[in-house]
């Protein structure tokens, strides 16, 4: 039985580390065409979109909405396949250049389909209402320093912080009613001669990820 010839694009190519000279000019041409059509989300003019949207019929809006919803999800699927399969299996440098550029373009497509700020706020408001209902049921009577009203205010405060982290404006504009909640974020130190260490993480293990190489972390094993 004759052997099946190997696909040239999948053939191992461990000795080629430079793009030039180009070995697959047609694939390289496709890469250059993709490069020439590059755009960013910030340069897209959306000033007339609302007027165009208002001019559509209900059926047209339904169709456009479903098409955008489909591509919002499928862009992520395309990205996953490009990064997880194509870039690993294809060995040709010209094809990898094209796929790498396509990954960048798909990321921009995903950015264009992000939720509007009003929709994000609507989702957060719904979550706050649900959380507030749970708190009112869990705290039917006031405790020392804590009651349903203060907990509701704290939920709104946390929601505003989440909105700011997502790049949106605040909705509730309330203060943190529990100052002691800020202490939870402080680095804890335990005297291990007196009691069992109860911190969630070992001291200094994560310090190198903060960019200071642990120089600002108190340690008991440093040389003096």
TrEMBL record:
SUPFAM superfamilies: Ferritin-like. Signal peptide: none annotated. GO terms for molecular function: oxidoreductase activity. It comes from the Eukaryota. GO terms for biological process: deoxyribonucleotide biosynthetic process. Pfam families: Ribonuc_red_sm. Transmembrane segments: none annotated. Belongs to the ribonucleoside diphosphate reductase small chain family. This is Ribonucleoside-diphosphate reductase small chain.
């Amino acid at each position: 039985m004759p052997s099946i010839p190997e696909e040239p694009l999948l053939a191992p190519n461990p000795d080629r580390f430079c793009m030039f000279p180009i070995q697959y000019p047609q694939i390289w041409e496709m890469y250059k065409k993709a490069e020439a059509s590059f755009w960013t989300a910030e340069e897209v003019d959306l000033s007339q979109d609302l007027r165009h949207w208002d001019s559509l019929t209900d059926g047209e809006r339904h169709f456009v909405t479903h098409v955008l919803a489909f591509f919002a999800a499928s862009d992520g699927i395309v990205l996953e396949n490009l990064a997880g399969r194509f870039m690993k299996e294809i060995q040709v440098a010209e094809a990898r250049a094209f796929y790498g550029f396509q990954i960048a373009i798909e990321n921009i497509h995903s950015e264009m389909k992000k939720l509007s700020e009003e929709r994000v706020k609507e989702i957060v408001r719904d979550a706050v209402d649900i959380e507030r209902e749970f708190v009112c049921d869990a705290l039917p009577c006031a405790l020392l320093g804590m009651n349903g009203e203060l907990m509701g205010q704290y939920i709104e405060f946390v929601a505003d912080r989440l909105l700011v982290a997502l790049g949106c404006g605040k909705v509730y504009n309330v203060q943190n009613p529990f100052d002691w909640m800020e202490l939870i974020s402080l680095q804890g130190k335990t005297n291990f001669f007196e009691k069992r260490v109860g911190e969630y993480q070992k001291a200094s293990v994560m310090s190198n990820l903060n960019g200071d190489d642990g120089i600002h972390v108190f340690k008991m094993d440093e040389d003096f």
